[in-house]
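FIELD: query
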Amino acid sequence: MPVGKSALQAIAVAWARSQGYTVLGACGSESESRLPFASLHQLLRPVLARARSGSVMMITSVPREAVSGVATPTMKAAVCARYGPPENLRVREVPRPSPKPDEVCVRIRASAVTASDIFIRSARVTARLQVPFRLMMGLLGPRHPIIGFVFSGVVDEVGAAATRFRVGDEVYGCTGFRLGAYAEYRCMVESDSRLHGCLALKPRTLSHEQATAAAYGGLLALQYVDKGAIGPGDEVLVYGASGTSGTLAVQYARSLGARVTGVCSAKNVDLVRSLGADEVLDYTAVDAPPAGVRYALVLDSVGGLKSSRLKVACRRAVAPGGRYVSIDDGDLELSSRRLEQVARLVDAGTLSPVLGATFALDDIVSAHRAVQDGHKRGGVAVTIG
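FIELD: result
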């Protein structure tokens, strides 16, 4: 009887677990193939032989070469088998995806290490969120072990029903809950969704590495600054003004005519001032904003896990009718229209993303460690291709 590829994978997974191996699945989008049941022993033998070299085994797909003699195309990717420290990330060869009719395949040139990536890799969330987090993302490790949320690259292949992009287009975006940006290739659906992410033409004036900071920081900055409905002359305070989203929030608020106060550490005061902040407060030296100042918008761009006396005081300094918003308030909206808006603002010179460091994919552990240690300056990019 014929057996689908997914059924063969399930049998292989069950067999490997019965032998005491830890089994790691990997994402991909190859089309379904159907093989005779008699071929199962041919498929399991090379898979299990490769697994015997260590205690962790990856079953990514049925190895086509075992039946047809044709090697499956592969790509380099950073894989996270279990939640934990940066050292849990491993760079290895995995099957390369092919686009479905409504997808485009992007040759990724750069990704980034964001706060979202740190949370997903470490599962370092509050006790209240542990259960829903693991149900959504995976119990012991990420359900989609090729992690990475942000990318910039070039369209390499276009599905038959895809219409928005052409081969050769330079694009940037976010992957959604299926992750997968720490890889040389990623297939993307052209329409926006929390699951599949969002995609747009990247800013022409940026490198791929810079574009990753514009994608993540720009989406956050525009979404949360817009919540304040600010206008000319309004007082705006950005707490965490030297981070990926904070640097762009300062610039965006200024472009709307607001008078902006940035909060950062002493080493980043000059940077934040250079971005257009009218006033800069050092949270390590100041416990309260200037007396009598009331803000139409206070934006917390570092989230609830970091606080200070100044942050508490800033919350109390919101003007009547003003707003205090945090990037922890709700989900990031994955919007290709907003990415297009970011690109226009960047190419017009209104926004300029700050890139603090760049690492190679082979140094992904060091990149995660640098971001996890905190106090980064702007974005942290990962060059992939």
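FIELD: remark
The longest helix spans residues 208-226.
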